[in-house]
Design a protein that fits this description.
Length: 285
């Protein structure tokens, strides 16, 4: 019997077309996962005049080694450094996965470094000039962890809300949030409302946004796809949205927590960052 080779093709487009011309569409999932790459820093023979920066990096390493989740964040002030020494830190820290825009109580731009748990916090004046330059070591900078909800509402009563006719499901969701907030304290389990799985209209979302308010902080995480984390003006309530590589919203949630975990470095991250920093600095010893 003569053998017959049958090509096997799988995946999108491998199946016969439907008679009515309809085609199966596949959702584009997040892509472009960030990976660590060692920063490019000056060679040992090119560090003349960088003694101040090198001394601070040894302090940074000590702080990373000793930091434990729950500790107050450690800080290194860079204001006293000249341009060359500050540029060394620009090269050493680079840009990691998470960035933060803060408008209150301070105007600041925050960037996680390539070393997870090491953050560059730049405080700006009204003309966006850097007036204070700080490195923080911690799971998340203190501006986010401690100061985000200073002026936020602590609770609200949804029973007296005037609900427009075009709003259908916002009221029970706001009632759920209000009930949880009366009981919630930092350290409790995170409470998540997955809006992507619930029926709602654009008017529902707008009504909830108007009632919860807009907070002073927006966090962007690029660890896997893109995640936008927006503080509301209601204490401990965050709007967390995940987008795929086509910038299509694929997961939309409200989260009750001090800070969503997706924005924070873990203890394992910080231990690994200490090991990486030790390896980077070994060329200068």
């Amino acid at each position: 019997m003569k053998s017959i080779e049958i090509p096997i093709v799988t995946g999108p487009g491998s199946q016969p077309a439907e008679r009515d011309g309809a085609e199966m569409e596949f959702m584009q999932l997040p892509s472009g996962m960030s990976t660590y790459s060692a920063p490019i820093v000056p060679e040992a023979e090119d560090t003349e005049g960088l003694e101040a920066a090198l001394e601070l990096t040894e302090t940074l390493l000590d702080q990373l080694r000793s930091y434990r989740l729950g500790d107050d964040n450690a800080q290194l002030i860079l204001d006293q450094l000249d341009d060359a020494n500050r540029e060394f830190f620009d090269q050493l820290l680079g840009e990691g996965e998470v960035s933060v825009q803060c408008n209150q109580p301070f105007h600041a731009v925050i960037q996680e470094s390539v070393l997870a748990g090491v953050w560059r916090v730049r405080y700006l004046d009204s003309e966006d000039r850097v007036v204070h330059d700080v490195i923080e070591i911690g799971d998340i900078p203190a501006l986010v962890k401690q100061d985000c909800f200073n002026d936020a509402e602590t609770a609200f009563d949804p029973s007296g809300l005037e609900i427009p006719e075009t709003v259908y499901n916002a009221a029970p969701l706001l009632t759920e949030i209000a009930d949880k907030l009366t009981q919630f304290t930092p350290g409790d389990d995170v409470h998540v409302i997955n809006l992507s799985l619930l029926p709602h209209t654009e008017e529902d979302l707008q009504f909830m946004s108007d009632r919860l308010g807009i907070g002073p902080i927006v966090v962007l995480s690029r660890g896997y796809g893109n995640c936008r984390i927006s503080a509301t003006n209601t204490r401990y309530v965050w709007w967390v949205q995940y987008f795929n590589s086509q910038e299509t919203l694929i997961l939309n949630t409200l989260e009750i927590s001090p800070v969503p975990d997706v924005a924070c470095a873990s203890q394992e991250d910080i231990i690994e960052s200490a090991e990486r920093l030790d390896e980077i600095l070994s060329i200068y010893r």
